[in-house]
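**Discrete fold encoding**
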Amino acid sequence: MDIQTFRIYYDTYYKPLCRFLNLYTQDIEVIEDVIQEIFLKLWENKDSIEITYIKTYLFRAAKNKVLNHLRNEENRHYLLENWFNQQIEDSKHKECFDLDTLTDLLNRAIDQLPSKCKEIFLLSRREQLSYKQIAEKLNISIKTVETQISIALRRIKDILSSSTFAFLWLFI
């Protein structure tokens, strides 16, 4: 494959690949990164790769790469959520914390979230809805749900950690 052939492939398939990946995620940065990685790999392996149908290759590679990205994002959120839950569980066993006080702090932290963020967080935690169910219920993207949950967890963690230090100062 020479540079002219590569350029033809890029010009021909870039926009169709964007539209195709938009079915999986509406995050334009992710879409552009995936397409860039696919074309970079194609160029780097131009001398060794044997492709019979370039369109099939590009679309399959794009689909696999975006699904891997989404899976890794979901795993990151899952790990963060587990860490957060473990921190709460660990704090239950410390003698200096009163469970009612901690629950009150957590509820106040949740109340301080922006309204949409709070709504999404409560649908996830209290009603145990999946990200997909929340997205469908609120007519938003799954990526928006993921982002709002991340924001909620980060803000709650920040509020609890600052409140915890203030709470600990009372016992010192």
